[in-house]
Amino acid sequence: MKKFFILFYICLSSLTTFAQLDRSKRPTPGPAPVIRLGKYESFQLANGLKIFVVTNKKLPRVAVNLILDYIPPLEKEVTGLGDITGQMLRTGTQTRTKDQIDEQIDFLGATLYTSSSGAYGSSLKKHQDKLMEIMADLLLHPSFKQEELDKIKTEKKNELSLSKDEPESILQQVKSVVLYGKDHPYGEITTEKSIDAITLDKINTYYATYFKPNIGYMAFVGDITLAEAKALTEKYFSTWKQGTVPTPTYIQPKVPAKTKVIVVNKPEAVQTVLSIAYPIDFKPGPPDAIKASITNDILGYGGFSGRLFQNLREKHGYTYGAYSSLQNDRLVGSFSAGGNIKTNVVDSAITEIVSEMRRIRDIVVTDAELKQTKNIRNGIFVQSLEDPQTIARFALNTARYKLPADYYSNYLKNIEAVKIPDIQAMAKKYILPENAYILVVGNASEFEAKLQQFGEIIHYDAEGNKIEASTSSSTIPADITADKVIGNYINAIGGKEKLIKIRDVSTSMNAKVQGMEVTGLRQQKTPNKLKMSMKIASMGMEVLKIVSNGNKATFSAMGNTQELTGKELESTKAMNTLFPELYYDQIGVTRTLKGIEKVNGSDTYVIELTLPGGSKTTEYFEINSGLKVKQILVGETNGQTVTQTTNFGDYREVSGVKFPYLLSTSFGPQVVDLKVTSIELNKGLGDEIFE
């Protein structure tokens, strides 16, 4: 009872306080807070390495960050070279193997990693000498080995495989090509081919060209003094030899003369990713940086208060969130606005974004809106000062971008000095709705016709290459039907006579999932019996099992078993049929020829299947070979829409019938490559296996 009354009193007090506030009036913004930035000290080694020290003795830790400040080169056929070179620095030196480095860093309880633009490390203060010794060894005495390069190249390819089916990743890649062009370093895309072209010689050349101290900025943060930093850098980095680093120049990317619509077709996409973007000449620092940033905050960067968020989410419900960004860069900046949009309202979302871009440019903002945005930016800035790394970042930015010495100490004053006319001036300069690229990644057949009102439509593939339109069915020959495409597939894999003689199929396969070796066995028997099991090879632990006797089906994952019922059961029974294409009429699968689309550069016929339970599957059959190369399943799990995409490849003959020996399956961002190790036919599998 006592606890109840305490809680009751707290609630009552809260209600009383709430009632005393006049919620119809916004709080009056206060003046810009007066702040005192933390101090930093600096010095320079004879070889040109510039060092900054931010002393903070709250914790006995030290962090050191090295930035190599060079203009990125065009990597062309070896795009990804700089990134991989940065990773290779962490794989060994002339006196330490990668395993030895890992062991030493773990023993210190430290952190150390390298990149194409430098290195970062942190440790307890008592280990700062050893940390600097190892960091200097990595940077000054690397030893690049082929086996380590092979590992990294494999990892990079896996990363590409994970992202190639993600609409957001596709949008970013295509956007970089469209905005900057492939003759600009920001417009280059890493591919499997470019990764394969990277060699040890090229890595050695990249390292020798760009890892020089005279373009380096090193910042110490933590329990360290200027004298200690001088002693450490003299001891470990004074022998680092300086050199001339190339400073390439590039043609400045321009905004389009008129709006163009860039479409990437992703038929299985549940939503559509949208970005209205263009390059701009927007350098770091004054005179426009603060004014332009506040302008963008009002439009779409200021969280829930941004106009785009309020319009597209709160007012219209087109998306969970809509935002804009205005990025500065010493080579070329960019503007973009958009979000993940419901596919059926993509055209309406574009209209609203363009409307908001025009409104902030053509109609002055209100005083209240400007004050609110200033307060938010003030708060973010002040909060960032709690982190000592912020002061180090300010020091590095001031040096790298030649900012005024008092740029950050006057930051809040300069925010407060922004006036309403400044917002409109910045909007007119940087917000260009009539000179933009409208980039859209999604199921183009659902929205493409509606986008013609916005400008010329240009089609791209996921790797940023222009292609012919691939969503129209008008190019389908008059004599081609869904059943004819399926018939061609049956003939391509061996023909009906051979297929009906197969009574059971046993398929062994393996894959790597999150670094673990997984083995699988799939057994099928006519008419529609199935058993599939996946195990972690090192443990023998079963992680997945599906069993169906043709009438009932169960699904087990990590020890939890669920019996399939209703529509899910009916769909499963239909697709478990051995060579179901032979029996679509009998099992109640309807077929619709949807059009012609490209898959991995080849034209394919697209067939939509409606299964007995009502779910739909989309399948892609290569026109030239007749083979099935892709399948998309869309379903619901726990109320959420789930898309599973499988690519089929490496077809091989087994007793005169072709089977795919590579099945690359994606579930959202996760991609699993199943490699078939053996296929056995007509083993006489007993019915008891499927119970």
From TrEMBL:
Residues 1-19 form the signal peptide. Gene3D superfamilies: Metalloenzyme, LuxS/M16 peptidase-like (3.30.830.10). Keywords: Signal. It holds the Pfam family Peptidase_M16_C. Residues 198-375 form the Peptidase M16 C-terminal domain. Residues 76-172 form the Peptidase M16 N-terminal domain. SUPFAM superfamilies: LuxS/MPP-like metallohydrolase. PANTHER family: METALLOPROTEASE, PROCESSING PROTEASE. This is Pitrilysin family protein. It comes from Xanthocytophaga flava.
